[in-house]
């Protein structure tokens, strides 16, 4: 749906720079429909439609299009993120990176994978040899300023800091060892629910 929709994007604004599109909503509806068809009693938290409270032990957390701004501008770094918490514990994570179609997945206790092949975090512990990634909140207030100070600090101490604009994808790149560290302030549950499991199961 996402890759076939580049000529039919309708953009709305949740904030000055916080975009949402008809594609976000369409993909979210499709994912919710699929989960409900298999697990009708499970609770679902989705970025655009919010919380649908049902059985408390199983919570699906969905970001239907992480990196919406990138998607709208045609910048090739965005993804779909689906995580599952079982009794409050992040237990399953799946992220489809787009437009590359790289599929990252992990289940608690069973390792992490990219396109079916095991992945592991970097073993680099020397900060001067590290490549990092970060992101910035939409609200350009004090938290944004604090992150700018961190950005300056780590840019000076490391081999570089990248800012790609999709936290779930950043976490998958961390799990693969492409970057050595990642930080971002004010992330939401749907930004991290899948990525946390993937990073943890890759040794992070």
From TrEMBL:
Its EC number is 3.1.3.25. Signal peptide: none annotated. GO terms for biological process: inositol metabolic process; phosphatidylinositol phosphate biosynthetic process; signal transduction. It is an enzyme of class 3 (hydrolase). Its cofactor is Mg(2+). InterPro entries: IMPase, Inositol_monoP_metal-BS, Inositol_monophosphatase-like, Inositol_monophosphatase_CS. This is inositol-phosphate phosphatase. It comes from marine metagenome.
